[in-house]
């Protein structure tokens, strides 16, 4: 991917901030993990996904399977405008030493006001839930956002997912509300500086 293409597929960020990690690298707190979760996978690698690629299409399919179909919805009915400007992140499972990897998790980040990004569409393959894959995705997203100069991440967490974000240091704000027919909480987390 050229630097111009790389800049084109991410939200604008504040001037004077450090560059994001090179494509294919994993920021601190999100290193590839040894695992075997019934998929024959030995390694989970988290990395950026470019908009409009085959990997992006796989991410859409996973989002549909995990987040929409269980509610009787389809991602084909979602408004995906603006996704070309979002940061897309994927978790890939592969056998140790193997070249072939399978997308098992995804999320996206969108600009959400001055100095903030909104984390959206966090989806992990059902077979890998509870294995740390979601945590790796979120930590990668946080490190990427911080390196680009963002000060916080905000999100709307499904009520069933809110405890996951609680454990990662996100704070609930306001009352529970309904979105896409299910209960959610607004949550946020400041980035940079706070030890884990």
From TrEMBL:
CDD domains hit by this protein: NAT_SF (cd04301)
GO-annotated molecular function: N-acetyltransferase activity
Basic and acidic residues: bias regions: 1-12
Superkingdom, natural source: Bacteria
Assigned keywords, A-Z: Transferase
Domain N-acetyltransferase as annotated: residue spans: 44-192
InterPro entries: Acyl_CoA_acyltransferase, GNAT_dom, NAT_camello-type
Signal peptide, first to last residue: none
Region (Disordered): 1-37
Alphabetical list of PANTHER family matching this protein: GNAT FAMILY N-ACETYLTRANSFERASE, LD18367P
Name of this chain's protein: GNAT family N-acetyltransferase
Organism: Saccharibacillus brassicae
């Amino acid at each position: 991917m050229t630097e111009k293409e790389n800049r084109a597929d991410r939200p604008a960020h504040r001037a004077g901030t450090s560059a994001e990690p090179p494509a294919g690298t994993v920021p601190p707190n999100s290193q590839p993990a040894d695992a075997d979760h019934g998929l024959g996978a030995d390694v989970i690698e988290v990395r950026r996904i470019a908009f409009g690629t085959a990997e992006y299409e796989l991410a859409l399919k996973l989002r549909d399977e995990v987040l929409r179909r269980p509610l009787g919805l389809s991602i084909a009915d979602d408004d995906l405008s603006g996704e070309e400007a979002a940061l897309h992140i994927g978790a890939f499972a592969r056998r140790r030493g193997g070249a072939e990897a399978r997308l098992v998790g995804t999320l996206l980040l969108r600009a959400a006001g001055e100095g903030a990004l909104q984390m959206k569409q966090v989806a992990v393959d059902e077979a890998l839930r509870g294995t740390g894959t979601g945590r790796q995705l979120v930590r990668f997203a946080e490190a990427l956002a911080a390196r680009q100069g963002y000060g916080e991440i905000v999100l709307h967490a499904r009520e069933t997912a809110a405890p996951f974000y609680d454990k990662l240091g996100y704070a609930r704000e306001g009352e529970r509300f309904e979105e896409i027919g299910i209960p959610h909480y607004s949550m946020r987390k400041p980035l940079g500086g706070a030890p884990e």
